[in-house]
Amino acid sequence: MKTEEKPTDYKKITFRDRINTVDKEGKRVWVFPKMPKGKLYNYRRVVAYILLLFFYLAPHVNLNGEPLIFLNFIERRFVFFGNAFYPQDFHLLVLTLITLLVFIILFTVVYGRIFCGWVCPQTVFMEFLYRPIEYIIDGDRKKQRELARQEMNPVKLLKRIVKHSLFLTISFWTIITFLAYIKGYPEVQTIMAGWPGSKFSTLLGVLAFTGTHYFIFASFREQVCTLVCPYGRLQGVMLDNNSIVVAYDYARGEPRGRGKNENKGDCIDCHKCVEVCPTGIDIRNGTQLECINCTACIDACNSIMYTVNKPKGLIRYASERSIAEPKSKLLNARAIAYSIVLILLIGVVSVAFVNRGDVETTIIRTQGTMFQEYGTEAYSNLYNLQMINKTNETTSLELKLLSHDGEIKILGDKLDVEVGEVEKRNLLIILNKDLLKSSNTHIKIGVYTEGELLEEISSTFVGPNALDK
Length: 469
Ligand code: SF4
Ligand code: SF4
What we know:
The protein is α+β, with helices and mostly antiparallel strands. It folds into 2 domains: 1-356, no CATH class; 359-468, Immunoglobulins (Immunoglobulin-like, Sandwich). It has 16 helices and 17 strands. The strands form 6 sheets. Strands 8, 9, 10, 13 and 15 form a 5-stranded antiparallel β-sheet that branches. A 3-stranded antiparallel β-sheet has the order 3-4-5. The protein is elongated, with a radius of gyration of 32 Å. Residues 246, 276-279, 281, 283, 291-297 line the site of one iron/sulfur cluster.
């Protein structure tokens, strides 16, 4: 801040000892935000409706014969964009989660709570599904307040019934959609067709989750971000003066007030930024834990600046330092370090995904067995074979010895592995005695389907110790 021009009057600064939506007695202060309007709100609306459409439609869209996303926790089979994943792919999940975690931290350090304002499900559901319904039925901020003050009357009762019925319907359908992600939509249809007679426990579960979802969006609302969300709680340690957040340019705006006094800043103290805030705060008091970076106050202030013929951006995406020192750097050392880690992790995850085969094969020598004479000219070793088919169709597989001119005998029927099944067999590998140069011979086995090599497996073949001499 340019302290020599506008010294801070610390006597006027007030500090809060409670969140903004709780009064001195500890009672909830209900927020009636004004409907946002503006460029950023329109962009956010596009992002939100794409996300909502994806969420509600993904279980109904099939790709490679599979739902777009399918999270079958019971059978431990997960499908993402037509690719099936199994417990054997756990390392990919861990890598992806680590990458995601670093990604979120990096983004928060550099761009503040951009995730909260633009893509967080809480914000998307609240601001672009439930809140618009409320605006349509109850009206904007002023009408909502009037309605809240009124004693119950036929009009208010009707509005409440319509609004909460819609909220409950959306909550119910949202929970059904979650269930479709876990069980698949056809299965969910079958379950629902049996209600209430059969699958009563599922019905109870769906109703309990519907009630919770409804409570969150009809009543608890911004308290989720302020009191419950761990990501929100972590902001204090992740943000610093260089983080880009929704910020009020106090250097330009203060001293605030109306009138044409030359010493006045650009803020006309119209409170429009406060009225639109879904968490009920005044961004002019600086970055606060309740701020979800929704940008509603940017849009509101920009429209005021336009009407008073002042440049936009009195509230904007900016770092504290860029307001105090306009020539400061955007990226600090911490952000650069996180970026390098992130790029490395993305590289590792990409390589791991690209190298993930359609079939995963393990061949290990059966414990406690040694070599066997096989006729007079050869030795045999017994192995345990395990194969997992990660494709979407039954696959016929063949094994060939790549490293030696030997033979593989798989015990049992033809090797047809069902989708997602783990096929376990025993197999014999037979090698001529004259091929063995030591008691431990490195061998390579190729896994084929329809003549195409899918993967190469390495193992060892044991022979008599006499070969080592
Ligand atoms: S202060 Fe602005 S960006 Fe933060 S929550 Fe309120 S309206 Fe959204
Ligand atoms: S909307 Fe802009 S001008 Fe109005 S009070 Fe907020 S910061 Fe000041």
